[in-house]
Amino acid sequence: MSVAAALRRAAKLARAGDRDGAAQVYREVLARFPANPQARKELAALGQTGAARPAAAQSATASGTSPSHTGPAPTEAEFSALTQAFSRGDTDRVIAGAQALILRFPAHAPSHNLLGLAQAKAGRYEAALASYDRALAADPAMAIAHHNKAAAFAALARMDEAAASALETVRLEPAYAEGHLSAAYALLALGRLDEAQAHLHEAEANARRQPGVRARAQLGMGNLAFRRARPHAAARHYARAHELDPHNVEALTNLVLAQLAEGRHEQASATARAATELEPRNPQAWTNLAQCLLEGGERDQARAALERALAIAPRHVAALALMGRVAPPAPGTPAFARLAEMVASPDLQEADRAQLGFVLFEAEDRDGDPARAFARLEAANRMRRSAQPYDIAADRALVAAMHSTFAPDRPLPRAPRKPAATPRPVFIVGMPRSGTSLVEQILAAHSSVHAGGELMALGAAMEDLGWSPTEPGPPPDAAMLARLRTDYLASLAEIGTDRPVVTDKMPLNFRWLGFALAAMPEARALVTLRDPVATCFSNYRLHFTGGGNNFGNDLGDLAEFHRLHLDLVALWEQRFPGRVARVPYEALTENQEEESRKLVAAAGLEWEDACLDFHKVERAVHTSSSEQVRRRMYTGSSQAWRKYEAWLGPLIEALGEPAR
């Protein structure tokens, strides 16, 4: 929740006669922004002070001395004058005044801490860190200085050090809920998920009367669940955060993403609109609404929402990237120049620069200069590789483990007999950009099918069994398969459809088909196959969210990953005959009815003519193919790489594919 929204909420509570509730909200604002003048004024008007906050939350702006400070100190009036200047935003005066106090009282830790706060507010984070260190040299038990250090390290994206400082905060003040939150968010950024979860629980346990803090703990739990590919659980946590703090717009913006991942587009759209109404000046709220509109096929409305976002925050990366899909800026225009400046700026995180670099490529691609466009594309992929490294060795090891686990001379593991599942899953897998969205759209036109989209459930269930893309797990036995079946089907039940078949078109689930088909004998799998060069180039030219598709940032990795995926598909065809069907993309686009009939039959369904009018199906599509699947069948998309053939020689050679 923004400060403005928190202050509005507190005022409303006060007007309603809930003075204690209003005071608590003002204290929560001061815990985050100790010098906020309105919060301090209104809290005083209520006849209360910030002294009721935990000791660790007392910054130099809230108290004149550190709890353990016993040496010479400035008068309360001197120190108060600086805190008031801080509250007015007079950062230069605070810095000068704090430095003057430090000359007189070099061991006065609160003065060093206040200096650090002012320096951080001015964006001088390195100087702030030095000031916090001097505060701690004077008073090693000053937990708030560690807390402030954690915030400065986080602002510098130095998350290892942020986590260490936050952990020291809660070592000194174990009951400080804000400190646990700081630790949890830093640990989450580092991927230390179990530790982050423990601190989130500690934050909530120590914030029984602080609904705002509890809401942020629930937000963290939602983020944790989303990282673990559990959008249903994430949505529950975000909804709970919103219940605890109805003015917390971040709870709504995150809930939108979880609902989209669940395939609940209508709910996501409603939540996105609610977020824009709650905080009309929030650019992420408008960007999320644009995402929902675009996935629903409402391109013009999506553009209008993005224009609102960018009017608020012209350098908002997510909005700029999505606008690049809707209306890429033409080279030579001011909008293109601004994007190019951002991509070249060292002040922007490399992952953000990469994302905008793909927008520049799309703009150059439309402009018709392939040499210049490919240079942009190479640069964007190079930045993304640096920001999110990928090692093909992990996928080699995973494929080898699958061959060992499902070797032809080993009997297939079997789950205990169960009644046929309703709904029955149909997995649509393959390389990303190989036609999975088109195949799902064809099946979505069938009266017996609910299109589930890219469900995270199978990957999450496999992780619970000890398998991940980077770490093979134990061989399956009957108990493991029974658990996989139970967990996966439970996630399908949460979709809430009454149709007997649900499609799951998470492309990279081809990794887990052996487990899924063994656990669910009623399941079927369709594997989409497209021209290898076209498939790999399509991956190379697109920016994917998350790190699951990072093999696509290097042409050599792409070629090898493509070969590994074909290797696994062949293994599943051998071990599960009649249940894994190949769907050739080019043949499907050229012989629509014949190939559509084949794939519908392979999914275990009777033919319906409506499957030929797939483009008329009204549903949201949560992939980069959201616009293509709303057109009639067309051919030629597999030739788009041709104009870049001069730069794709290493890819073509590595694939072993003649240029066709």
From TrEMBL:
<feature type="compositionally biased region" description="Low complexity">
    <location>
        <begin position="47"/>
        <end position="68"/>
    </location>
</feature>
<protein>
    <submittedName>
        <fullName>Tetratricopeptide repeat protein</fullName>
    </submittedName>
</protein>
<dbReference type="GO" id="GO:0008476">
    <property type="term" value="F:protein-tyrosine sulfotransferase activity"/>
</dbReference>
<dbReference type="InterPro" id="IPR019734">
    <property type="entry name" value="TPR_rpt"/>
</dbReference>
<dbReference type="InterPro" id="IPR026634">
    <property type="entry name" value="TPST-like"/>
</dbReference>
<feature type="region of interest" description="Disordered">
    <location>
        <begin position="47"/>
        <end position="75"/>
    </location>
</feature>
<dbReference type="Pfam" id="PF14559">
    <property type="entry name" value="TPR_19"/>
</dbReference>
<feature type="repeat" description="TPR">
    <location>
        <begin position="215"/>
        <end position="248"/>
    </location>
</feature>
<feature type="repeat" description="TPR">
    <location>
        <begin position="109"/>
        <end position="142"/>
    </location>
</feature>
<dbReference type="InterPro" id="IPR011990">
    <property type="entry name" value="TPR-like_helical_dom_sf"/>
</dbReference>
<feature type="repeat" description="TPR">
    <location>
        <begin position="283"/>
        <end position="316"/>
    </location>
</feature>
<keyword id="KW-0802">TPR repeat</keyword>
<dbReference type="Pfam" id="PF13432">
    <property type="entry name" value="TPR_16"/>
</dbReference>
<dbReference type="InterPro" id="IPR027417">
    <property type="entry name" value="P-loop_NTPase"/>
</dbReference>
<keyword id="KW-0808">Transferase</keyword>
<dbReference type="Pfam" id="PF13469">
    <property type="entry name" value="Sulfotransfer_3"/>
</dbReference>
<dbReference type="Pfam" id="PF13174">
    <property type="entry name" value="TPR_6"/>
</dbReference>
